[in-house]
Amino acid sequence: SQAKTKKNIETDIIGDKVGRIHLGKQDLNDMQTRKMKGLKRSRDDDTEGGPVVSDDEGEDFDADGGVEIKKIRV
């Protein structure tokens, strides 16, 4: 009896072993797409129960024209 040949396994030019994996059809409707960071709720929103509304309407500039430095939560 002869040795069984390995299917879908090749060796490339460099000498690395490369194999092919066959998968079934994927349902694209159930797949997770890229998550957008802008739609993510912050931790403060989860604890308080509602969105945080500021009075400066989201502007990052001070009255003197300088850029406000945001603090990093630890």
UniProtKB/TrEMBL annotation:
GO cellular component: nucleolus
InterPro entries noted in UniProt: Rpf2
Principal subcellular localisation of the protein: nucleus
Acidic residues: compositionally biased ranges: 54-65
GO BP terms, alphabetized: maturation of LSU-rRNA from tricistronic rRNA transcript (SSU-rRNA, 5.8S rRNA, LSU-rRNA); ribosomal large subunit assembly
GO MF entries: rRNA binding
Nucleus as UniProt keyword: yes
Domain of life per record: Eukaryota
Name assigned to this protein: Uncharacterized protein
Organism: Aureobasidium melanogenum (Aureobasidium pullulans var. melanogenum)
